[in-house]
Amino acid sequence: MNRIASDQALDFSRDIHSVSRLVSEARAVLDGAFPRLWVRGELSNLAQPASGHLYFSLKDEAAQVRCAMFRAKRTLLAFRPENGQQVLARVRVTLYEPRGDFQLVVEHLEPGGEGALRLAFERLKRQLAAEGLFDTAVKRPIPAFPRQVGLITSPFGAAVRDLITVLGRRFCSLPVLIYPAQVQGEAAPAALIAALAAANARAECDVLILARGGGSIEDLGAFNDEALARAIRASAIPVVSGVGHESDITIADLVADHRAATPSAAAELVAPSAEHLRQRLLALSTRLAGARQRRIAAIRQRLTATIRHLSLLHPAARLQQQAQRLDRAERRLKTLVAERLVRADRGWRPLAQRLAALTPEPAIGRARLRLNALRQRLGRAQSELLAHRRERLMRALAGLEARSPLGTLTRGYAILTRCADGAIVRDPSRVEPGERLQARVAGGLIGVVVESNPPERTARAPKAPRSPKP
Question: What is the pTM of this model?
Answer without folding.
Answer: 0.43
